[in-house]
Prior knowledge:
Elements: H1 9-43, H2 52-75, H3 77-96, H4 101-129, H5 133-164, H6 169-172, H7 174-188, H8 203-221, H9 228-251, H10 265-295, H11 300-306, H12 308-329, H13 331-349, H14 358-361, H15 363-385, H16 393-425, H17 431-460
Amino acid sequence: MSLDQPAGRSRWIALAVLSAQTLMIVLDQTIVNxxxxxxxxxxxxxxxxxxxxxxxxAIPFGGLLLLAGRLGDLAGRRRVFLAGMGVFTLASLxxxxxxxxxxxxxxxxxxxxxxxxxxxxxxxxxxRLFPExxxxxxxxxxxxxxxxxxxxxxxxxxxxxxxALSWHWIFLINLPIGLLAGVVALRVLENDRGLGFxxxxxxxxxxxxxxxxxxxxxxxxxxxxxxxxxxxxxGAVSLVLLAAFLVRQSRARDPLLPLRIFASRGxxxxxxxxxLLVAAMFAFQFLVVLYLRQVLNLSAQATGLAMVPIAAMIxxxxxxxxxxxxxxxxxxxxxxxxxxxxxxxLAWLTRVPADGSYAADVLAPTLAMGLGFxxxxxxxxxxxxxxxxxxxxxxxxxxxxxTQQVAGALGLSVLAVLAATRTGSLTGVPAAEAxxxxxxxAFWVGTGLVAAAFVVAAVMLRPGVAARxxxxxxxxxxxxxxxxx
Length: 485
């Protein structure tokens, strides 16, 4: 631990700052959903371009995470975190004061960029703050709860603020939180200097990967509105740019993403497991809400309340249960148990009927998924970050967050299209039956994704498997022994 590293109570305050900023950013991915009709009517959005209130945030956020993570290693994680927090807070003020669609979309783009900068380095900072196993387990439990439950909290907060005040306050509320968090962050976060830009300023690689990721996210989020030709075209260009980036990284003297990082079996396996798990979970949240609204005919307020139990379960397990069981049984076993619970909940949802009820058909499986997610996410973060070198923690954190964003968007788009296609193919069937059939198909596919995540984790993350690092071939990292960064 460096001389500037906070210790004792200060590092828990630092964790609170990192979690608060991350929560604010996660909230802003979903908080606008409930307010979209009010934004449309007030600013004059058309129904076609209204989706860009969401997409203008998602594209820079997903596209800049990897670059921001590496910048944290080079320029200093504290510096990048504070810069991202500042941009996000100022952009929130601009969004809250927006007077036309163009202003709001520009503000949302800046929010996404600032959010990417602070989010990309946050996980790496948490890992460095808590090098000992017990403390790290508690810290990752807190941090994963913020990331997992933030979406549900955002939907509820958006409805309350919009109804009680106005849609402007879903953005303006970030201003006092961001200012307070910034003042505290200046006092408690580690003042790391970074490696310096000479250690890895691959600007061509930065341009290639940022363009590839932004175009890829744009393709994914617009898959339902774009024609087949445009989707295939932009997707192909994104893949070409990504391939060019990988070629560049294999030849550059100071690569943005050193390919040696993938020699870590733990990091590679955790990212692949994360991709499969998040693809299923993002789609689950979206499709369950549609089932409650369109099939069970619950109101918007009742639907928001229906998502409270899963958020509460994630909070209880990730904050109180996961740190204890991870310390006792190891992250690997806890991860597998969590994946079994998530897969079981999704498989249970494949039985939802068209004439069902929330209490009888939705509550129990969603609680099982909340239990599993609360166990799996902290364990997965611990397994993924344990092999990262100290100088690569920002990059590894950015890679982890990029995986979450891209896989979540891709999973949501694919499963939503599958559900819609299945529903549309059932002509002459009552609407509720057709919709439910589509949702059940998507839940089956989600169950398969979680099963695949279980297999990947069991093969690549099991204890005793060589966690090969560059310069340390054959090094092993026991499941319970986390590295002292």
